[in-house]
Amino acid sequence: MRAQIALLPGDGIGVEVVAEAEKLLLAVAAKFGHEFSFVRGLIGGCAIDATGEALPDETLSICRASQAILLGAVGGPKWDNPSAKTRPEAGLLKIRKELGLFANVRPIKASPYLVQASPLKTEIVAGVDILFFRELTGGLYFGESGRKTNPDGSETAFNTMIYSTHEIERIVRLAGQAARGRRKKVTSVDKANVLEVSRLWRQTFDRVMQAEFPDVQTEHVLIDAMAMHLISKPKNFDVVVTENLFGDILTDEGSMLPGSMGLLPSASLGADGPGLYEPIHGSAPDIAGKGIANPLATILAAAMLLRHSLHLETEAVAIEKAVDHVLSRGHRTADIAGGGPAVSTVRMGELVLEAFLAV
Ligand SMILES: NC(=O)c1ccc[n+]([C@@H]2O[C@H](COP(=O)([O-])OP(=O)(O)OC[C@H]3O[C@@H](n4cnc5c(N)ncnc54)[C@H](O)[C@@H]3O)[C@@H](O)[C@H]2O)c1
Ligand SMILES: CC(C)[C@H](C(=O)O)[C@@H](O)C(=O)O
Ligand SMILES: [Mg+2]
C-alpha cells in the first residue's frame, strides 16, 4: 500500500525516539512491499523557535494530508517561562483539537520479561492488561480559563471542567466496543461525589452501556480510589474510560506496572482523518541528548499506527513480536535495567530492527 506518514519529532528525546521508530517503519515498507513517504513537521518548542508558533499552519496542513502522524514529545525548560506568549504544549493541544482526536487509547500491558522492572511486586503486575480510553479534546484542558488581577493586587486564575453529553457518549462507545473484543468489562472513573461534570459523565456512561452494551460488565470507581486500586489490584481492570486530566494522571501512574514511561504507546483517534500516535511520555529533559532514552514506547506507537490507521495488522504484530523478542533476550535501556547493563537508544532500535528482519 501507499501511505504518507507525518513525522513530528518535537523536542528533547522526541527526536531520538522517533528516529528509531522511523527506521522500523522503513523496514516494514521494504519487507512487506509498501510505499511509505515521510513528511516532517515542526511542533512544540522547536516550532516556537523557528516560527513563533507551537503548531505552525504548515505542520497542520502536512498532517491533514497524511494518513497517520507519528509524534515524539514537546516541551522543555527552555520554554517554561510562565509569562511566555505560547508554550510547546499548546501545539499538542491544538493538533488534538483541530484533528478531532477525542479518543486517546493507552494500552498498559506488563511484559512477562519485565516484571523485575516494575517497582511493584511480581504477583501484582504479572499478567496486567488494561486498555485506557482517555477523553482527549474536552474537560479542564479545553474549558474556559482565565486570570485576573484583584483590587488588592493579588491574582485569581481559573480553569473549567466542561463536558457535553455527545462528548461522553462517543468515548464510552469506543470503550464498550473495545471491551467486547477483550474481557468484557468497562470501568468508568470519575469524581461524581463532588463534580457535577462527573455526575453527567456517570449518567451518560450508564445509559449508553445499558442500551448498547448490555453484554459488557460495568463499574464506577472514584478517581482518588482508582489511583490506589490501579497499583494494588491492577488485574481487576480490563477497559477503563475516563475524562482528560484523570486519564493523563492515571496512565503515567499506570506506566509503573510495566515498569517505565518509556514502554507505553498511545493512539489518538477521531471519527475520521489521520490518527496521531505517540509515546505517553514527554521530552524528558533530564536525559535528553544523552542517547539513553527508551525508544520502545515510540516503536510500539508505530505498531499502533500500522494497525489503526493503515490497517496493517500483520505488520503491527511483527513489530510487537520483535520488541518482545528483544526483551526476552534480556536487552534493556537504562530505565528498565534496574542498575544492570543497559543499551543506548540507537542500539535498542537496532536490536528491534534485527529481530524484526529475522522473523
Ligand atoms: N506528549 C508529550 O509531548 C508530552 C507528554 C508529557 C510531558 N510532556 C512535556 O515534557 C516535558 C517534561 O515533562 P516531565 O519531565 O514531567 O515528563 P517526562 O515524561 O518527559 O519524564 C518523566 C520521567 O520519565 C523519564 N522518561 C520519560 N520518557 C522516557 C523514556 N522514553 N526513556 C527513559 N526514561 C523516560 C524521564 O527521564 C523523567 O525522569 C514538559 O515540558 C512536559 O510538558 C510532553
Ligand atoms: C504535554 C501535555 C499537554 C500532555 C497532556 O497533558 O495531555 C501529556 O502529558 C500527555 O500525556 O500527552
Ligand atoms: Mg501526560
Task: Tell me the layout of helices and strands.
Elements: E1 2-10, H1 13-32, E2 35-40, H2 45-51, H3 57-64, E3 68-73, H4 88-98, E4 103-109, H5 122-125, E5 129-135, E6 145-149, E7 155-159, H6 165-180, E8 185-190, H7 196-212, E9 217-222, H8 223-232, E10 239-242, H9 244-254, E11 265-269, E12 275-279, H10 296-308, H11 313-328, H12 345-358
Parallel strand pairs: 1-2, 1-3, 3-12, 5-10, 8-9, 8-10
Antiparallel strand pairs: 4-5, 4-11, 6-7, 11-12
Helix pairs in contact: 1-10, 1-12, 6-7, 8-9, 10-11, 11-12
Bound molecules: nicotinamide-adenine-dinucleotide, 3-isopropylmalic acid and magnesium ion.
What does this entry look like structurally?
This protein is α/β, with parallel strands linked by helices and 359 residues long. The protein folds into two domains: 1-120 and 260-359, 3-Layer(aba) Sandwich (Isopropylmalate Dehydrogenase); 129-256, Isopropylmalate Dehydrogenase. The protein is 41% helix and 20% strand. The chain is built from twelve helices and twelve strands. The strands form two sheets. The protein has a ten-stranded mixed β-sheet, with helices on both faces. Strands 6-7 form a two-stranded antiparallel sheet. A hairpin with a 5-residue loop joins strand 6 and strand 7. Helix 1 (13-32) packs across helix 10 (296-308). The radius of gyration is 20 Å and the shape is globular. The protein starts with a strand and ends with a helix. The relative contact order is 0.17. The mean pLDDT is 98. Nicotinamide-adenine-dinucleotide binds next to helix 1 and helix 4.
